[in-house]
Automatic annotation (TrEMBL), chain A:
Keyword Signal: no
Gene that specifies this protein: LOC116193098
KW Transport (keyword) present: yes
Keywords from the UniProt entry: Endoplasmic reticulum, ER-Golgi transport, Golgi apparatus, Transport
Source organism superkingdom: Eukaryota
Compartmental location: Endoplasmic reticulum; Golgi apparatus, cis-Golgi network; Golgi apparatus
CDD domains: TRAPPC4_synbindin
Protein name: Trafficking protein particle complex subunit
This protein's GO CC annotations: endoplasmic reticulum; Golgi apparatus; TRAPP complex
Family label: Belongs to the TRAPP small subunits family. TRAPPC4 subfamily.
From TrEMBL, chain B:
Protein name: Trafficking protein particle complex subunit
Entries under Gene3D superfamilies matching the protein: Trafficking protein particle complex subunit 3
Places the protein is found: Endoplasmic reticulum; Golgi apparatus, cis-Golgi network
Taxonomic placement: Eukaryota, Viridiplantae, Streptophyta, Embryophyta, Tracheophyta
Similarity section: Belongs to the TRAPP small subunits family. BET3 subfamily.
UniProt record, GO biological process: Golgi vesicle transport; macroautophagy
PANTHER family in the record: TRAFFICKING PROTEIN PARTICLE COMPLEX SUBUNIT 3
GO cellular component: endoplasmic reticulum; Golgi apparatus; TRAPP complex
Source organism (scientific name): Punica granatum (Pomegranate)
Keywords carried by this UniProt record: Endoplasmic reticulum, ER-Golgi transport, Golgi apparatus, Transport
Classification via InterPro entries: Bet3, NO_sig/Golgi_transp_ligand-bd, TRAPP_component
Length: 143, 152
C-alpha cells in the first residue's frame, strides 16, 4: 500500500514565528511551547542551509528524508514557509503545499480582520484545509 | 523537479471570479468622495489612498505569486514588465505598458491605457493635485516591499 499519511502541517511567518500548526497523526498534538520551538528551529536551519549551499541562489531546504518521516518545505517569495511532516515516500506533497499556499492567500490574507504575521485563526481556512488534505488522502489511497 | 511554467495574465484573469466593472468603479469613486469629505485636504486624501493601497498590496502579492507561478525577477526592468503585463492583467483585466526609463534603469512609468478605476470620472478644479488612482501606487509599493524591493 502506498504511503499516504500526513503527520502534521506548520506555517511559519517571515520572522520564524509559528502562525499555524495542525496535527493529523496519532501521536497527539505537540505542546504549544514545543511547537513554537520546533518552528523557530526549522526557520533557523532553513536559513543556515541557504548559506551552506555550494550552489549560488539556493532557496533553502525543500526536502528532508529521515527514517520515520519526510519533511517537505515550501517557501514563498515573501518569506512565509509551509512545511508538512509525512510518512516516508509520500508522493505529491509539493503539489499539496502549493494548494495550501493558495488557500492561505484566499482565506487568510483576504480576511481583513486577519493581522499580518499573527497566528491564523480563520475558520474558513481550517475548513478548506481539511477538505484539501482529505481529498489528497483519498486520491493517494485510490491509486 | 521542473518548475511549473509561468501563467499568462489572461489565463489567470479568465479563471477567477469577476465582479461587475461598474460596481467596482462606483465603489472606488464612493471611497474617494468620502475621503475628500472626511479629510478635506487633497494631500491627506492622497496619503490615505496610498496607505490603503499599501495594505492591499502586502496581501495581494502572495496571491499573485501563488497564481502566476513567476520566479524571482532578475532585475528591476523585469519586475516592472511583470507588474504591467501579468499583474495588472490578472487583477484589473487591463494591460499596462512600461515607458520612460531613465538612464540607470531605476525609474520608469507604468501607463494604463484603459483604467477601470477612472471610467466616467471627471476631476473638478477644486481637486487639483488629487492623485485619483493613488491606491494603485500604494498597492505596487506594498507588494514590492514584501518581496524586498524598496521603492519610491
Amino acid at each position: 500500500m502506498a504511503a499516504a499519511a500526513i503527520y502534521s502541517l506548520f506555517i511559519i511567518n517571515k520572522s520564524g514565528g509559528l502562525i499555524y500548526y495542525k496535527e493529523y497523526g496519532s501521536a497527539g498534538r505537540m505542546d504549544t511551547n514545543d511547537s513554537l520551538r520546533v518552528a523557530s528551529l526549522w526557520h533557523s536551519m532553513h536559513a543556515i542551509s541557504q548559506q551552506l549551499s555550494p550552489t549560488v541562489g539556493c532557496s533553502g531546504i525543500e526536502l528532508l528524508e529521515a527514517d520515520a518521516f519526510d519533511l517537505h518545505c515550501f517557501q514563498s517569495l515573501t518569506g512565509t514557509k509551509f512545511f508538512v511532516v509525512c510518512e516516508p515516500g509520500t508522493l505529491h506533497m509539493d503539489a499539496l503545499l502549493k494548494v495550501i499556499y493558495e488557500l492561505y492567500t484566499d482565506y487568510v490574507l483576504k480576511n481583513p480582520f486577519y493581522e499580518m504575521e499573527m497566528p491564523i485563526r480563520c475558520e474558513l481556512f481550517d475548513l478548506n484545509l481539511s477538505q484539501a488534505v482529505q481529498k489528497d488522502r483519498v486520491a493517494l489511497l485510490g491509486r | 523537479m521542473p518548475a511549473a511554467a509561468p501563467r499568462s495574465g489572461d489565463a489567470i484573469f479568465a479563471s477567477v471570479e469577476h465582479v461587475n466593472a461598474e460596481l467596482f468603479t462606483l465603489t472606488y469613486g464612493a471611497i474617494v468622495r468620502q475621503l475628500l469629505t472626511d479629510l478635506e485636504e487633497v494631500d491627506e486624501v492622497n496619503k490615505q489612498l496610498d496607505q490603503m493601497g499599501y495594505n492591499i498590496g502586502i496581501r495581494l502579492i502572495d496571491e499573485f505569486l501563488a497564481k502566476a507561478n513567476v520566479s524571482r525577477c532578475v532585475d528591476f526592468k523585469e519586475t516592472a514588465e511583470t507588474i504591467a503585463k501579468v499583474g495588472f492583467k490578472m487583477f484589473l483585466g487591463v494591460t499596462a505598458s512600461v515607458t520612460n526609463w531613465d538612464a540607470d534603469g531605476t525609474c520608469c512609468s507604468i501607463v494604463l491605457e484603459d483604467n477601470p478605476l477612472v471610467d466616467f470620472v471627471e476631476l473638478p478644479d477644486t481637486c487639483q493635485g488629487l492623485y485619483y488612482c493613488n491606491v494603485l501606487s500604494g498597492v505596487i509599493r506594498g507588494a514590492l516591499e514584501m518581496v524586498s524591493v524598496h521603492e519610491d
